[in-house]
Each structure stands twice: as structure tokens, then as C-alpha cells.
Amino acid sequence: MRRMNKTLAAAAATAAVLGLTACTQTAGASAPAPQAVVNAQNQNNIQVQSEEEVKVVPDKAEVSFAVSSQAADPKSVQDLNSTDVNKVISFLKSTGIDEKSIQTSSFGLQPIYDWNDGQKITGYEMRTGIVVSDIPMDQVGTLLTSSIDAGINNIDRISYLSSKYDESYQEALKKAVESSKVKAEAMAAASGKSLGEVTNVQEISSYNENRYTTYAADSAAGSLEAGAKQIAIEPGQISITAQVTVTYSIK
Within 10 Å of residue 29's Cβ, how many Cβ atoms? Predict the structure, then answer.
């Protein structure tokens, strides 16, 4: 009977601990995930999340242009837009841009309404998007300024890129792993433990993420006028980030 009572007491104590754990997890369910946590299933591990960034000056750009044309009927606007687009592409090639760097990205045709006359159709507009990539940074301002003479009447966005993205991302990954060790050592010391070896490393950030910083450029399109001064381009820096989760043993 005494052995049975001890067994029942142990079971009750275990149930109380499990109940307390469940309450704690429920209470913290809506809280943001911590950046450094002790593995609940293995008290001999510390799991740390770390994020670091590397900034790099972009050395090339990608510009999204568009050519909009208007005419009285769909066939006329299609012919006019085709002529305008061909003129623009010829201009781009004449500046030394490789044909492989020029892409027609979108087409759109829509009616033009006179809303003051009962939604009457007064004509049609066709818009063709053109993306130009691999533009050397020192040529971007000149290209934007001179493009208006070739028939480009919309500049949708400018994307700044770096040819050093890959190596910069690797550097950010290395820094993220190194900073995770600093966090883990502080946690281990605060717990009266010492840090052991790395037992697992997981990359959280996506290496295939967009490799550029994009800026809207709608306002620039309105400033492109014949004889206008060259548009000043200030690309700044691209921020490249890497995030990892590292698990360490503790002893």
C-alpha cells in the first residue's frame, strides 16, 4: 500500500508539472517568437537565431520603361504603338545596350472614356512595357534623360543591383553564424553552463531572393522633357541580409 501511495504521488507531481508547462505555452502563444531559445525537448541544447547584413554600393541598374500611344480605334493605336516601340528599341541598341538586355515585358490596350458625356469612348490607348537590364551605373542618368527623344513616355521603376551580391551574401551568412555564437555563449554563461559544439545550422533567409533594391520612378517620367538636364542618380547602398538558426550543445 505504501509503494502504491508513492507511485500515485509521483504521478500527481508529474501531472502538475505538465499542466504548468501547458499553461505557460498557452499564455505565450500570441507572443512573437524569441530570437534565442533553449530546446524544450533537450535541455542540453541552446538554439539561437541571428541576422546580419552587409551593405554594398550597386554598380549596375535595371530600368522599366513603357511606351504609351493613343489613337481613335484599336487597329490604329496598335500600329502606332508598334512603330513607337520599334523606334525606342532601335534607340536603346544605338546607345550600346546589348540586345539580350532588352525585353518587352507587358502589353495593354484599353479604351479612353469621356466621363462627362455618359461614359463615351473617345479613343484607345496601348501601353508596352520595356525592361532594360545590366546598365552600367554611370550611364543611367544619361539614358533616362535622352530616352524621351526616342519616344519613351513612362519610367515605372529603377532597380539597383550589385555584381558582388553573391560574395556579400556569403559574408552576411558568416557574420550571422558568428553573432549566434556570441548570443549562445551569453545564454550558457547566464545559465551556469559552458558552450559546446555546433550540432545544427539552418539557413532561414532565401539565397534566391531579389538581388536588388527597387525605387518607384513615376515622378521621373514627368520630368523628362526635351532639352532637360541629365537626371541625377543617387543609388546609395544595397542592404544584403542573411538569417540563420544555430543549435549548440551545452555542458
Answer: 7
